[in-house]
């Protein structure tokens, strides 16, 4: 049940509002994220985070093994997987039954997306030491990604991990992620709350609990969490972008515009945020402000045909058909199979009384509409 793959294009817009992710989200018309997509984003993004070491690991009696294992744990904290693999190899030469060594290697294999190897090593670690919390977290995650584990099995492993080591923040965090995917939102909120108790300043955990509240329809609680995210990281634009989306869902357009403005102060070159703010200006009938945002966005990314189409549409709303026509021409120059640009240019030609040119563009738009959609890689 790997639902995250179909919605991966939205991942960046929820976690970091990166240019590429937000652009794809805006283009697809899905930048107001759906509940299924949010579940997908939770899983895809959250599983990129690191895992803390498990508690209760049995210490090796061999001094050489202990030293190599110590170095392996240090390398693991730095996410130097190559060093981890080599140091684990040395550890196991001196102590073939080091559960923690297998657990660390499992974690590194997971980072490298070698999920079958990760599961095998996690199984080995658990068989040697059933109290190794980290091994259960790695096995649960890797089992999900290689398609071998059901959500129930993953949840069972994560619950075992937090039972063995209640202070493992990552265990509660991933338990929140998986229960979100399963749409058990009360359980998600409970897990994220426990993770927050361990690390109140971890903005990622707070933000994901906010998303869980959103999927429960508890927008006020979601908004409160996003306020906390911004207090933790007031100079990072991601929190403002996420809160702007939440405010828009609640119909608070002015507040959303304010947050997009704050986000742009943190990161002025995020042209997709300009697109988002422009779209809200249009909802308020503030077309000139929208045009200004689209113009600034074009200055940052002059090869995006969508920007020209959107600005052209805004000029069209103002009945400024000459400027609209110029933007549609630019959009088509950038993408000569842009169906919407031909259709909008046809409408503009009609308003200008150029019926022959309008007919030609309408036919071109109809021809493009009939073509099968290209499969996206």
Can you characterise this structure?
The chain is mainly alpha-helical and 377 residues long. The protein folds into two domains: 3-233, Alpha Horseshoe (Serine Threonine Protein Phosphatase 5, Tetratricopeptide repeat), CATH 1.25.40; 303-370, Alpha Horseshoe (Serine Threonine Protein Phosphatase 5, Tetratricopeptide repeat), CATH 1.25.40.10. Helices cover 73% and strands 0% of the residues. It has 21 helices and no strands. It has helices spanning 11-15, 19-28, 35-46, 63-77, 81-94, 99-111, 115-128, 133-145, 151-164, 169-181, 185-198, 203-215, 219-232, 237-249, 253-266, 271-283, 287-300, 305-317, 321-334, 339-351, 355-370. Helix 3 runs antiparallel to helix 10 (169-181). The longest helix has 16 residues, at 355-370. It is elongated, with a radius of gyration of 25 Å.
**Which structural category do the helix and sheet elements fall into?**
mainly alpha
Number of strands: 0
Radius of gyration: 25 Å
Low-confidence stretches: 1-42, 48-56
- Note the beta-strand portion: under 5%
Q: Number of DSSP helices?
A: 21
- Principal-axes shape call: elongated
Helix fraction by DSSP (H/I, runs of at least 4): over 70%
The CATH homologous superfamily of the largest domain: Tetratricopeptide repeat domain
Biggest sheet record:
none
Q: Which CATH-level-2 architecture of the largest domain?
A: Alpha Horseshoe
Order of helices and strands: HHHHHHHHHHHHHHHHHHHHH
* Tally of domains: 2
End-to-end distance: 20 Å
CATH topology of the largest domain: Serine Threonine Protein Phosphatase 5, Tetratricopeptide repeat
So what's the oligomer here? single chain
Mean pLDDT: 86
The level 1 CATH classification of the largest domain is: Mainly Alpha
């Amino acid at each position: 049940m790997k639902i995250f793959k179909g919605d991966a294009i939205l991942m960046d817009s929820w976690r970091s509002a990166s240019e590429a992710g937000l652009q794809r989200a805006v283009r697809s018309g899905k930048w107001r994220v759906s509940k299924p997509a949010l579940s997908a984003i939770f899983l895809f993004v959250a599983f990129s985070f690191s895992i803390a070491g498990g508690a209760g690991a049995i210490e090796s009696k061999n001094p050489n093994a202990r030293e190599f294992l110590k170095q392996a744990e240090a390398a693991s904290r730095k996410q130097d997987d190559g060093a981890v693999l080599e140091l684990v190899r040395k550890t196991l030469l001196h102590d073939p039954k080091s559960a923690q060594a297998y657990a660390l290697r499992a974690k590194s294999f997971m980072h490298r997306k070698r999920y079958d190897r990760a599961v095998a090593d996690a199984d080995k670690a658990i068989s040697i030491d059933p109290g190794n919390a980290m091994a259960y977290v790695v096995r649960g995650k890797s089992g999900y990604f290689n398609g071998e584990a059901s959500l129930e099995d993953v949840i069972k492993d994560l619950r075992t991990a937090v039972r063995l080591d209640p202070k493992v923040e990552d265990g509660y965090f991933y338990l929140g992620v998986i229960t979100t995917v399963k749409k058990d939102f009360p359980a998600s909120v409970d897990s994220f709350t426990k993770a927050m108790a361990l690390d109140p300043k971890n903005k990622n955990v707070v933000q994901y609990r906010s998303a869980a509240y959103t999927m429960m329809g508890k927008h006020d609680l979601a908004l409160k969490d996003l306020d906390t995210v911004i207090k933790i990281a007031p100079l990072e634009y991601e929190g403002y972008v996420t809160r702007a989306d939440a405010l828009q869902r609640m119909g608070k357009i002015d507040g959303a515009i304010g947050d997009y403005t704050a986000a742009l102060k943190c990161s002025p070159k995020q042209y997709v945020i300009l697109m988002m703010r422009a779209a809200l200006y249009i909802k308020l009938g503030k077309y000139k402000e929208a045009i200004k945002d689209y113009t600034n966005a074009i200055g940052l990314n002059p090869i995006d045909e969508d920007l020209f189409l959107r600005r052209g549409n805004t000029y069209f709303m103002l009945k400024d058909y000459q400027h609209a026509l110029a933007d549609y021409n630019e959009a088509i120059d950038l993408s000569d199979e842009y169906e919407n640009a031909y259709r909008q240019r046809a409408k503009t030609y009609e308003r200008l009384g150029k019926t022959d040119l309008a007919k030609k563009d309408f036919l071109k738009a109809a021809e493009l509409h009939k073509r099968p959609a290209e499969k996206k890689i």
